[in-house]
# Entry
Amino acid sequence: MIEAVGLTKRYGAKTAVHNLSFQVRPGAVTGFLGPNGSGKSTTMRMILGLDTPTAGHATVGGHPFRKLPNAPRQVGALLDAKAVHGGRSARQHLLSLAQLSGIPARRVDEVLGVVGLQDVAKRRSSGFSLGMGQRLGIAAALLGDPQVLLFDEPVNGLDPEGILWVRNLMKQLAAEGRTVFVSSHLMSEMALTADHLIVIGRGQLLADMSVTDFISANSADFARVRTPDTEPEQREKLAAALGEAGGRTTAEQDGALRVTGLPLPRISELAHAADIRLWELSPHQASLEEAYMRMTQGAVDYRSTADPRAGLQGPPAGYAPQGGPPQGYAGPGYAPGPQGGPGHPGQAQPNPYAQQNPYGQQAPGAAPGQGYPPPGPGQAQGHPYGASGPYGAPHPYGQQPQPAAPMPPAAPTTPHHEDAR
Amino acid sequence: MSAVTQVLRSEWTKIRSVRSTVWTLGTAVVITVALGVLLCLLAKSDFGSLAAKDQIVFDPTNASFAGMGLGQLAMIVFGVLVVSNEYSTGMIRTSLAAVPQRGTFLACKVAVATALVCVVGMATSFAAFFAGQAVLGGHRAHLDDPNVLRAVIGGGLYMTLIALFSMGVATMLRSPLLSLGILMPFFFLISSILGNVPATRKIGRYLPDQAGQKIMQVVPRVNDHVTYGPWGGLAIMVGWVLAALLGGFVLLKRRDA
# Structure
């Protein structure tokens, strides 16, 4: 059991971790998610007593780490796979760590076998690939057969087979009743590995919930609507009509509209009533990765400025905080992006049809982002999660009851815009 | 107690499993002995042409330690690497996560390295002495001459203390480049400049190497108005070493790893 209470770390004026409180329970894999520089590693170092918190404290099994009797037998950690003297062989490296905590040398050979490095045990570790380095780091964490394990980005640099191995190892360790705390910046990986998620951004807690809850709260659905490219005013008109009916619309890069809060038949009816032709009306499900990006985009420290679409996008049609007034289609970002020419409506989007839902499950979703990479800075303000407080409340849209009317089978849903008239 | 034994064993594994240990210590031995022998050869061939005054103050023991000035640089590299390796590789975090008692960790690391350096330093000192004296032939000194044994043992102690001082400095500075960048020029150039320029000579003779080297002299130098004796000089050097180690300990204890 790891517990952080009001953990805060400041480096000069910069706050790396701010008032972080959470618990990591035994018997489960707890994923620790956040963008690069969000304070994951700093938090782990504070748990391990390497960095002294500016405020608050962290305990392992009820003790501050530095006061733990025989710490290496209780806590194992992989902090940095490359933290090995390159001139030392894998076996010597592990042996020196084993001797530190009085672990017999045969345990070294055991863990080398567990991580599959027995054949290169005598080789100098400077020749190791990143993946082999990760395995060596994991071996070091396992040395003392500890009840509490911390892994900082263990799958970095691993090949698919290695990733699967780490995933199963984590699950197995948790199944043995151990506390497993794994950091990552990959939501998709954590969705497969972890049972529980702790999400931070800019050093603050954004979410602390089970993976199941996170998925049900965040895998929101939305509809894509395209009006003829030749008549942009129709798009304005449709956006206004949908807004009046309580839907939220945002512009996609290719000029389509992303509609949330309205079932597909209703969109079709509204368009019909407004005498607007549709080239496309299709159901989509936002990926978990997208939900995570949305949650953390206000908290991303390092962002590429080389976004080819940067100049083409208007101010993002914000993700209005829940309860706010229905937001119309605000952004002037009509111009079809370079990737989304008229002939390829779907391509500018991460996974346009892959997760298409059966109609019956179509729920009005909250999927307001414009797809990734996260759009301009304005979006950060309207971000409902950026505010403090654990993200405990169920997502307002994701758990809404199903729309009453099942989708009529005739609803135009195919990707070919010609069919959607 | 057992924790200390464990850390000592681990540090010993760490030291003997990297090649830099053999390279740096080996270089120290070879350079010190070889340069000492070379200088003794030169001294022997030039002895006849020396002024009578210089012949009287010729110090055969000290002549065989002529390689110490360069050999100590290899000792400095060893001392710096032993400590800063942990930082440059990031291993320090793994080590301190395993040994949260940072004082124990540093003490054990320094103790193991010191023991090794002491053995190598003593061997070097005796080897340099015997090799140098063998070359000097008729002008040679003997181990049972007055103060000679003190000078030879002092040579080994001097090398040990130089390495220890480097460990302390490296613990404070962490970066191997920074530590070497300060220590090497200091002991190779700056210290001897300070010790030879009249204006700074008074300060220069209290620097760790100048004070410590006094113990290797058997025949007092002319115009040498130092206020401390051979053991006093070594004590001054020990003071420097303790200060460096204490500084390293305090910083290690306080600092984030």
